[in-house]
């Protein structure tokens, strides 16, 4: 883009990136300045006092990365960014491992939502660069930017048109393929025409990968190596045929032990179940892993128009729309037992033709005409449960920026609408009608259904109905201005001031007609809830270039929440450059995060909101097993083994109106060495302290630690009503470690130039304090007491080697991702360590054609399986690696 006349607004900034994703430096930085994430004051990129990593979009694309998922999963500071295979919630970044809600995601410097979002709503084709601030920025963007900030910066303008086709295919057949296209078209030159408008869009489709397509990942041998007991050593719960116990809780009739399965002796019902302990049948499917990846479709559109009003004023407007659709495959429908949310037990009486011993189903010792409780899975008749998740995002932004007198200013208005809808696709029925069908003899809980049973299940299906729907609406304005105040020996003192205000409204609805569908919830009435808040803020930042070598920056921000009051958070940072080849930098600040509307208001109740994600023994009513185990316990006399042993227990995991805000302190100290123009080494120490942290205990911790016995709410007879695991203010979280980045460019040769880089994070300590003034529990290289799925690796890194040919037509990148071994979430029945995981990705890009750009690549070059693991009950470490195996990638771009 050429300009007829220089403009203070449009000064070009060239970011010289050393190798792939390297730390950014500026060429001729004394003259060229830009606003970088973490500060409201424009300055040369090389003069940043904060640890910011800036990566141009073309560098990501040259590596074969095709979605925002790909980009964030390669960042060591993202800590935990994993494929979400079992729900419709969007993937999200979790910087420093302290929670997705404490990582602020921005689009062009403006917040997207007050909760974790799916960044795939942003089309990659619209990106100019990504900026990752590995430091808190509460004093600039909002008090909740505790773990760090990821800012996706879109193209300022675009002229021309291009079309890109892309696709991925695993080397092994069976599913998991993906395909997509993107386009960009724009017209107008800001310099010569004074205007530009462009539109860009992405469409991506991902096929599901069935578990059956990767038997090597969930084979019996692999499961056994991860600590899973063989089915024959597991006491069966929900299965087909159904396991039974006496409804009155008795376990003996005379000297005869009661319970088990009428088909145990004949081998149960292959392939749905196999014989287990205590004459029971055990389900043959693995929890939450009926598909290893979920089917999804993503479509996003972004358009921006810019108009220059003279040299120093610019108007722009942008519109983002995205629609993301996911179809996860979950566990099958099962009958609810009596302990779940006071819902009636699934029972069968002697009037049913399917009662054991009545002629169709084999008799069982001691069972005559008693009422029986059933632990039944409908997997054989209904298959797994499949949900349709749909998320729509619409976001409009209007910007006016320019120069008035001595002030540079920018005023913005933005409005965002997020809507979600979950509907039942297959495998769901109304639970009340399910109970009735068993009671009246139309349904056979001990085998596959005859035509009468099939017709009945079809008549009570809730497939196609809405399970829940939600809406979030945010409207806001941002104002900021900056100017030079005076001159110090190091340069001009610069002041920036700003203010913002936004209204946050959320609505959630669960229709009554489907509240019981699927047998997985005890809700009995429609739930319609809404909540809102207003947030206003004002901030100021001042930069003091005391000398050419020393620069000090001070900022402070005050936020006011209509439902919490006010909070003020300062931050100070410095940059000291005693020589051209070395720079010291550091910062310290505070943060404050109010609970989101969902955390405080939605689903708040004194009672059970659902059931545990897996089966457990009630530690009081089914003693004898190891803490947290699902086997080995024996029900106390008078209690039903099917509800107190190896059962999914009632639990409240909902919102809490009493939950309060959390507060933080962050500290960073680093050094950057550039002894030559080719070598850069940066080492940054970080420390984050969080108190009154909002969270809930991981479910295994509830059963493994007797200290949490007070959370088991029981009636006067000792029956478990529910486990109180609502969100609450914990003691705190503290973590510290080192971020390391080193890049080196080898000398140019006639063959081109090679650059190498290593970008890693070493965690010295990550500790959680569950109760105020309680003990600090370490969770480095092992799971902590709160989130059972966050993996805080002691050491993880990404390394790369990038070659660019002498004429620039060829680019090749070899990338290595390493994650250290990790102690598994062990239940006490076995001890297992998740293996370290190293994967290599390679790509080659050619730009020598006049209008074509071609890329081919291979992810997981050596086809390494993900490590075996038991922490999610899936058999492999889905939070660490992809189950696809080796994947071939191709992309072709045609420029018109």
UniProtKB/TrEMBL annotation:
Main location: membrane
Keywords: Cell outer membrane, Membrane, Receptor, Signal, TonB box, Transmembrane, Transmembrane beta strand, Transport
PROSITE patterns, per the entry: TONB_DEPENDENT_REC_3
Compartments in which it is found: Cell outer membrane
Annotated GO CC locations: cell outer membrane
InterPro entries in the record: Beta-barrel_TonB, Beta-barrel_TonB_sf, Plug_dom, Plug_dom_sf, TonB-dep_rcpt-like
Domain TonB-dependent receptor-like beta-barrel as annotated: residue spans: 381-861
Signal peptide range: 1-26
Membrane topology: Multi-pass membrane protein
Domain of life per record: Bacteria
Family per similarity comment: Belongs to the TonB-dependent receptor family.
Protein name: TonB-dependent receptor
Organism per entry: Duganella aquatilis
């Amino acid at each position: 883009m050429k300009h007829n006349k220089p403009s203070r607004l449009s000064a070009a900034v060239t970011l010289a990136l050393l190798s792939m994703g390297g730390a950014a430096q500026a060429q001729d930085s004394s003259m060229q300045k830009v606003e970088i994430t973490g500060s409201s004051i424009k300055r040369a990129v090389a003069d940043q006092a904060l640890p910011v990593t800036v990566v141009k979009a073309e560098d990501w694309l040259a590596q074969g990365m095709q979605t925002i998922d790909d980009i964030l999963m390669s960042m060591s500071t993202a800590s935990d960014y994993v494929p979400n295979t079992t729900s419709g919630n969007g993937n999200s970044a979790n910087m420093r491992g302290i929670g997705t809600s404490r990582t602020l995601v921005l689009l062009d410097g403006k917040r997207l939502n007050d909760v974790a979002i799916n960044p795939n709503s942003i089309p990659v084709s619209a990106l100019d660069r990504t900026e990752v601030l590995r430091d808190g920025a509460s004093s600039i963007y909002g008090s909740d930017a505790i773990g760090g900030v990821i800012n996706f910066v879109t193209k300022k303008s675009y002229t021309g048109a291009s079309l890109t086709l892309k696709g991925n295919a695993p080397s092994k057949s069976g599913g998991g393929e993906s395909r997509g296209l993107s386009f960009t078209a724009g017209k107008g030159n800001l310099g010569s025409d004074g205007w530009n408008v462009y539109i860009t869009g992405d469409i991506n489709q991902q096929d599901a990968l069935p578990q059956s397509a990767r038997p090597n990942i969930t084979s019996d041998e692999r499961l056994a190596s991860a600590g899973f007991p063989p089915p024959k050593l597991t006491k069966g719960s929900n299965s087909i045929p159904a396991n039974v116990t006496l409804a009155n809780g008795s376990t003996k009739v005379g000297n005869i032990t009661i319970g088990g399965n009428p088909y145990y002796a004949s081998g149960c019902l292959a392939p749905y179940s196999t014989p287990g302990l205590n004459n029971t049948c055990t389900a043959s499917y693995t929890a939450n892993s009926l598909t290893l990846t979920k089917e999804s479709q993503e479509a996003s559109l972004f358009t921006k128009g810019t108009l220059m009003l003279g040299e120093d004023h610019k108007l722009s407007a942008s519109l983002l729309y995205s629609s993301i659709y996911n179809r996860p495959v979950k566990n099958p429908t099962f009958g609810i037992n009596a302990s779940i949310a006071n819902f009636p037990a699934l029972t069968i009486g002697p009037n049913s033709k399917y009662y054991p011993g009545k002629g169709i189903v084999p008799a069982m010792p001691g069972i005559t005409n008693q009422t029986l409780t059933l632990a039944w899975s409908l997997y054989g008749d209904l298959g797994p449960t499949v949900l349709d998740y749909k998320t729509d995002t619409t976001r409009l932004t209007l910007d006016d920026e320019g120069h008035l007198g001595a002030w540079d200013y920018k005023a913005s208005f933005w409005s965002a609408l997020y809507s979600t809808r979950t509907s039942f696709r297959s495998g769901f029925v109304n639970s009340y009608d399910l109970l009735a069908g068993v009671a009246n003899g139309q349904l056979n809980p001990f085998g596959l259904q005859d035509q009468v049973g099939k017709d009945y299940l079809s008549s009570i299906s809730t497939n196609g109905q809405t399970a829940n729907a939600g809406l979030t609406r945010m409207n806001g304005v941002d104002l900021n201005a900056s100017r030079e105040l005076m001159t110090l020996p190091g340069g001009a003192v610069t002041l920036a001031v700003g203010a913002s205000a936004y209204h946050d409204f959320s609505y959630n609805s669960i229709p009554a007609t489907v509240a019981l569908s699927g047998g997985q919830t005890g809700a009995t009435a429609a739930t319609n809830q809404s909540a809102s808040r207003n947030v206003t803020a004002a901030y100021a930042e001042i930069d003091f270039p005391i000398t050419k070598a020393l620069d000090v920056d001070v900022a402070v921000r005050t936020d006011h929440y209509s439902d919490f009051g006010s909070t003020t958070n300062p931050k100070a940072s410095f940059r000291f450059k005693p020589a051209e080849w070395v720079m010291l930098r550091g910062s310290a600040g505070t943060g404050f995060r109010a609970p989101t509307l969902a955390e405080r208001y939605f689903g708040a109740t004194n009672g059970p909101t659902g059931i545990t994600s897996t089966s457990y023994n009630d530690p009081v009513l089914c003693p004898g097993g190891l803490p947290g185990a699902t086997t080995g316990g024996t029900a106390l006399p008078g209690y039903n083994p099917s509800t107190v042993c190896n059962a999914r227990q009632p639990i409240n995991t909902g919102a809490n109106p009493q939950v309060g805000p959390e507060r933080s302190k962050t500290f960073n100290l680093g050094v950057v060495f550039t002894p030559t123009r080719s070598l850069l080494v940066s080492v940054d120490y970080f420390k984050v302290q969080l108190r009154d942290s909002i969270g809930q205990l991981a479910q295994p911790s509830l059963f493994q630690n007797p200290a949490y016995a007070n959370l088991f709410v029981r009636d006067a007879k000792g029956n478990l009503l529910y486990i109180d695991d609502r969100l609450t203010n914990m003691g705190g979280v503290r973590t510290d470690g080192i971020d390391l980045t080193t890049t080196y460019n080898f000398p140019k040769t006639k063959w081109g130039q090679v650059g190498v880089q290593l970008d890693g994070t070493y965690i010295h300590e990550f500790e959680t304090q569950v109760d105020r003034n309680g003990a600090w529990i370490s969770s480095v290289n092992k799971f902590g007491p709160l989130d059972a799925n966050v993996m805080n690796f002691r050491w993880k890194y990404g390394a790369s080697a990038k070659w660019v040919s002498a004429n620039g037509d060829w680019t090749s990148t070899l990338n290595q991702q390493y994650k250290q071994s990790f102690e598994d979430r062990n239940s006490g029945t076995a001890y297992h360590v998740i293996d370290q995981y190293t994967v290599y990705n390679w790509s080659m890009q050619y730009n020598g054609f006049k209008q074509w750009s071609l890329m081919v690549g291979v992810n997981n070059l050596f086809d390494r399986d993900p490590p075996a693991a038991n922490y999610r009950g899936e058999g492999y470490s889905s939070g660490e690696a992809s189950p696809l195996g080796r994947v071939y990638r191709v992309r072709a771009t045609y420029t018109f």
